[in-house]
Specification:
Layout (H helix, E strand, L loop, with lengths): L7 E3 L3 E5 L5 H8 L16 H17 L2 E8 L5 E11 L4 E8 L8 H16 L4 E6 L4 H9 L3 E12 L2 E11 H6 L1
Parallel strand pairs: 5-6
Antiparallel strand pairs: 1-2, 2-3, 3-4, 4-5, 6-8, 7-8
Helix pairs in contact: 1-2
The structure holds coenzyme A.
Length: about 180
């Protein structure tokens, strides 16, 4: 696992920073939103306790190096609108997975593309990754578009990989390699 140290990343409109207990309500607002969990294999949260537990798990993961999850904060207002993460590190292969979500009222303004560009710079430049993977529901067009804008390439398809709200759902696999970035 990488040795994670508290980090802040800045973009023109956003601050990405480690999360703590003060983010509980904002984190709950994101994952209690059924639009956010539409393509997730778990139901929207209905209890604030879920956010309390999630923040505790996020904090533990900083300590053991298993997940670098950043809160996404609007620079203008200081509001925490969502989060993004590098996780499932396979250190010997310099590889991990990518995750992201923001509250639905903030969609369509380029925030996640902006946040992930900074997160990926951190992953490749600071954590020295060689490869980042993402898997998404093929119906999640916005998520696919975000990945493609960032240079990810479609690599595979796994039918019925998840049960999403009672329905078998497929996965499209995406990957971003260091050499794609070097060549860009
Ligand atoms: C997917 C998600 C992260 C996108 O965040 P966002 O901040 O709205 O993304 P951006 O504005 O940076 O980019 C969205 C892009 O998708 C496009 N888009 C939006 N809806 C789309 C759709 N249904 N089909 C195709 N493209 C779509 C937008 O036009 C934009 O592309 P453009 O810049 O070329 O115009 C956000 O919708 C979200 O949090 N969803 C819930 C959680 C989730 O699904 N996470 C991913 C799980 S793998």
């Amino acid at each position: 696992m990488p040795d994670l140290t508290p980090t802040k990343l800045f973009t023109p409109r956003l601050k990405l920073r480690w999360m703590d207990e003060r983010d509980t309500d904002a984190h709950y607002a994101v994952f209690s939103d059924p639009l956010v969990t539409r393509y997730w294999s778990s139901e929207p949260w209905t209890s604030r306790d879920r956010a309390v537990q999630a923040i505790a798990r996020i904090r533990a993961a900083y300590a053991d190096g298993s997940e670098a999850r950043f809160g996404i904060e609007l620079l203008e207002t200081g509001e925490l609108i969502g989060n993004c993460a590098l996780h499932h590190f396979f250190e010997a292969s310099r590889r991990c997975e990518l995750g992201y979500a923001i509250g639905s009222r903030h969609w369509g303004r380029g925030y996640v593309s902006e946040a992930l560009a900074a997160l990926l710079d951190y992953g490749f430049d600071v954590l020295d990754l060689n490869r980042v993977e993402a898997d998404i529901d093929p119906r999640n067009g916005a998520s696919a578009r975000v990945l493609e804008k960032l240079g990810f390439r479609k690599e595979g398809y796994m039918p019925e990989r998840w049960i999403v709200h009672g329905e078998a759902a497929d996965t499209v696999n995406y990957g971003l390699l260091r050499r794609y970035r070097d060549a860009a």
